[in-house]
Design goal:
Length: about 375
């Protein structure tokens, strides 16, 4: 058997030392690692709160009772301003759509040369008829003064008296004809029948129009009204003089008052129109859509803060925090909304602690931290 040479024995010695050092390091890293302190006696490990929320109990509030309806804003009354003369040319048009006008203001003028000539001719005929009447009246007065003297026969006296009557009739006819030409001359100026705003204009300079043709459309007094549609089952809750909050398409909210209720339903929609007077406002435009809310009184309701109501999958939910600070999701049915309060018809009780701030981030069974 061969003896181990000194160099080989030395190499094995170094390998043994290196292995001992490696084992020593492993011992100190894994086996001698300091133990973590044990939890105190009686302490239990548990999940930490995920969110911080505030809670509030539902409150009893007195909320207004409202009837919602849709409708249109229309003119209170519209006046059709037309031509009263026939076959004349429009010489000038003084107003346009949107202009505010006063009663008696000149809106348009027709060419009046022909009418003025007719008026002068009628005036001349009137003067001639007046002169003939005065002459016939003088002859009749003389005949009446001497009829008892026998200077004139009865037939001559009757002839003078008849001539007086004929001349009087001719004078009255000429006077009427002159008045007619004066009216026709005055009608060459188209006047506003009332205060208001021009809503439509078909008058064009140079056009020859016929009598009765509409030239302008005028919103009288610049007044607008809202015509809301309510169902036959709802109309019994509407009263004359009732307050209505009308919301225009622009977002403008304006207070109105019920003026009248239609006596019959619309044959197409089967709804009944309610006429609501509105105060004058520049943003109100005829023909635009608007919503209305009829004030019907007040009633008691259980309400929560609007922040508490979370909308998910098309339904409304609130989170009730129990004694263990866990969130319980509850489906609720909401009703009226007034300011920052929402009526809850079912789903919560008055003694429930409902999450307010932070409710939108909660899920079922979340552990929360409640703060004031």
């Amino acid at each position: 058997m061969n003896a181990v040479s000194p160099p080989s024995r030395k190499r094995w010695l170094w390998l043994a030392i290196a292995l001992a050092l490696v084992l020593l390091v492993v011992f100190w890293v894994f086996i001698k690692k300091p133990a973590e302190p044990a939890p105190a006696a009686g302490a239990q490990a548990g999940p930490k709160p995920s969110l911080t929320v505030t809670v509030a109990k539902p409150a009893r509030s007195s909320l207004p009772i409202r009837l919602q309806a849709n409708g249109n804003i229309t003119a209170w009354q519209e006046a059709s301003v037309g031509a009263e003369v026939n076959g004349l040319r429009l010489a000038s048009v003084n107003v346009n759509v949107g202009d505010v006008v006063r009663k008696g203001q000149v809106l348009a003028v027709f060419a009046s040369e022909t009418t003025k000539a007719e008026s002068l001719q009628s005036q001349a005929s009137l003067m001639q008829a007046e002169a003939s009447f005065e002459n016939a009246k003088a002859d009749a007065d003389r005949a009446r003064s001497i009829q008892d003297t026998g200077a004139l026969s009865r037939s001559q006296v009757a002839q003078y008296l008849t001539q007086e009557k004929v001349a009087r009739a001719q004078f009255e006819a000429a006077k009427a004809a002159f008045g007619a030409t004066e009216v026709r001359l005055g009608n060459t100026r188209v006047l506003a029948p009332d205060d208001g705003v021009i809503s439509a204009r078909s008058a064009t300079v140079g056009a020859v129009v016929g009598a009765g043709q509409e030239l302008f459309r005028l919103v009288r007094q610049s007044r607008m009204e809202w015509r809301g549609e309510v169902t036959p089952s709802e109309v019994g809750r509407v009263r004359i003089g009732q307050k209505v909050l009308v919301t225009a398409a622009t977002g403008l909210e304006i207070a109105g008052q019920v003026r009248a209720v239609a006596p019959a339903a619309d044959p197409q929609t089967r709804n009944i129109l309610v006429f609501v007077d509105l105060p004058r406002h520049a943003e109100l435009k005829a023909g635009t859509f608007a919503k209305g809310s009829f004030e019907l009184g007040q009633s008691d309701a259980l309400t929560v803060a609007s922040q508490s109501v979370v909308v998910r999958d098309g339904s409304n939910y609130v989170f009730v925090i129990d004694a263990q600070n866990k969130a319980n999701q509850r489906k609720v049915q909401t009703g009226r909304r007034v300011g920052e309060r929402v009526e809850v018809l079912e789903g919560v009780q008055a003694e429930d602690a409902v999450a307010v701030e932070g409710a939108g981030f909660l899920n079922e069974a979340d552990l929360v931290k409640v703060v004031q």
